[in-house]
UniProtKB/TrEMBL annotation:
The protein's name: Uncharacterized protein
Top-level taxon of the source organism: Bacteria
Amino acid sequence: MLAAIIVLATLGKLSDGLLAGLEKRFLAWRDTFNGQSRED
C-alpha cells in the first residue's frame, strides 16, 4: 500500500512538471501579447 502511494505521488510530480514545461513552452507568447489597439 505504501509503495502504491509513493509511485502515484512520483507519477503526479512527473506529470505536473511535464505539463508545466509544456505550458511554458507553448503559451510563452501570451506573456508579451498586449492585444491590438483599435483607434476608432
